[in-house]
């Protein structure tokens, strides 16, 4: 059972590795759903002895990308490859929410040789079976999804249907809001071999009032919690 932990800073990366993560999803700005991290962060993570998949998303918001944004994403894929990471995380939508298969085909071709994950752009599609078939045709290794719900636990029925459609041709990786206390129910309901979580906890910002007043930081921030990563990994090992 593979545990993938998403992180957006160096402290989180180190905490996830110490806690026993099997793979890292590397992002920036997780509070906005995650966007492409810096080249420096990619290179730092690429030097670690753990598989790393880099989020390729030029901005927060929707997943409908203009031509210039697609070109940016291709340059970011190049940066990820040069950093020595193992994979990239991709997604793109049409205006109606369906997968933009033309753009995804272009991005996947550009990422040839890297492991590819279809991210939660899939959670806004109007037809989940169609999206699974598209992801298989495009050659993705896995789909990161909550089943179209706010959390993977809430979307577990849809996740089960996606797993049935996938029929072993692609991995369905549940993600969104997964905490250790949910693992037993998720594993009882779903046949999976990997799972995605942030394992974050609220932490004091530790900064002075002036930084907060100027808008550089808030009173609290999310931080990857090593103990939660370890707890989740242990539960997966005993129950998976």
UniProtKB/TrEMBL annotation:
Keyword Nucleotide-binding: no
GO annotation, cellular component aspect: cytoplasm
GO molecular function terms attached to this record: copper ion binding
Coiled-coil regions listed in the entry: none
Keyword terms: Cytoplasm
Localization per record: Cytoplasm
Family: Belongs to the CutC family.
Protein name stated in the entry: PF03932 family protein CutC
Natural source organism: Rhizobium skierniewicense
């Amino acid at each position: 059972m593979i545990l993938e932990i998403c992180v957006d800073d160096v402290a989180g990366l180190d905490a996830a590795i110490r806690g026993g993560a099997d793979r890292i999803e590397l992002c920036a700005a997780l509070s906005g759903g995650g966007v492409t991290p810096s080249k420096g962060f990619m290179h730092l993570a690429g030097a670690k002895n753990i598989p790393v998949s880099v989020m390729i998303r030029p901005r927060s918001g929707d997943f409908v990308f203009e031509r210039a944004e697609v070109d940016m994403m291709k340059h970011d894929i190049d940066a990820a490859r040069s950093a020595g990471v193992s994979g990239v995380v991709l997604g793109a939508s049409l205006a109606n929410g369906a997968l933009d298969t033309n753009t995804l085909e272009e991005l996947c071709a550009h990422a040839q040789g890297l492991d590819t994950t279809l991210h939660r752009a899939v959670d806004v599609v109007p037809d989940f079976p169609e999206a699974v078939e598209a992801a298989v045709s495009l050659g993705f290794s896995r789909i990161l999804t909550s089943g179209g719900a706010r959390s993977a636990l809430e979307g577990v029925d849809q996740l089960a249907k996606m797993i049935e459609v996938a029929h072993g041709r692609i991995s369905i990786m549940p993600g969104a809001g997964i905490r250790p206390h949910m693992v037993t129910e998720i594993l009882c309901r779903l046949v999976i071999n990997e799972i995605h979580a942030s394992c974050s906890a609220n932490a004091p910002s530790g900064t002075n009032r002036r930084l907060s007043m100027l808008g550089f930081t808030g009173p609290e921030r999310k931080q990857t919690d090593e103990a939660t990563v370890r707890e989740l990994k242990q539960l997966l090992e005993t129950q998976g």
